Amino acid sequence: SRSSSDIGASSVFDTNSGKLNLVGAGGYPKYNFYLQDKTLYMDYATSTLATTTVAITSSKSKVESLLFRRLTLAHGQGIKLEITIKDANNIVGSSTVYYSSAVLRGSYEN
Questions:
Q1: In this predicted structure, what is the pLDDT of residue 110?
Q2: What is the pTM of this model?
Q3: Side by side, which strands form the sheet with 39-45?
């Protein structure tokens, strides 16, 4: 998320079912990305009392793997994402791997 300034301690890197916890300045908002029953979810918390959970992937697809890697940069930190998604109905019969990366806001301003 654009308002994230730090990677939370509960993040799980370099494993097939990774988890990513992003934290905004001052502790909120918090974003948790995780895999459950082959669906990618995001929890979004604006306070200790307000958390919203949304499915990011469609029921027509299945996430086979979710891998987060922590990037340590010269002036900050970032995340590399590798996600493998497959057609839930096996119509296509193959899976696709997607890659992305992001640098945390504020970490490159030093």
A1: 47
A2: 0.84
A3: 4-7, 20-24, 30-36, 39-45, 51-55
